[in-house]
Specification:
Elements lengths: L2 E5 L2 E3 L5 E8 L8 E6 L6 E6 L6 E3 L7 E6 L4 E6 L8 E6 L10 E5 L2
Parallel strand pairs: 2-10
Antiparallel strand pairs: 1-3, 3-8, 4-5, 4-9, 5-6, 7-8, 9-10
Length: 114
């Protein structure tokens, strides 16, 4: 079955950086687009970034455009989210997702605070 395991979250100061990873299994990774979502307490889950395959065309939410970079490594069945210039409002649980599947991982917590 589809499995998605997110990692790389943690506590970072405003202005700092983190790199999230999502290891995927249970499907042919290289054929599918991948998305990153996030959900903060009291908020709905929102799309942050997406990357197609093949082609690697990327798209971003306006709130993170220019600060976050999504990438993928098909040989490792892994999608990444490089997060730079982090703001307190970026704090959330971050999830990866395959648009065609309903599976979600447990997410990884990102906290941005002094």
């Amino acid at each position: 079955q589809v499995q998605l395991v997110e990692s790389g979250g943690g506590l970072v100061q405003p202005g700092g950086s983190l790199r999230l990873s999502c290891a995927a299994s249970g499907f042919t990774f290289r054929y599918y687009a991948m998305n990153w979502y996030r959900q903060a307490p009291g908020n709905e889950r929102e799309s942050v970034a997406a990357i197609t395959s093949p082609g690697g065309i990327t798209s971003y939410a306006e709130s993170v455009n220019g600060r976050f970079i999504i990438s993928r490594e098909n040989a490792k069945n892994t999608v990444y989210l490089q997060m730079n210039s982090l703001k307190p409002e970026d704090a959330a649980v971050y999830y990866c997702n395959v648009p065609q599947f309903s599976s979600w991982g447990r997410g990884t917590q990102v906290t941005v605070s002094t």
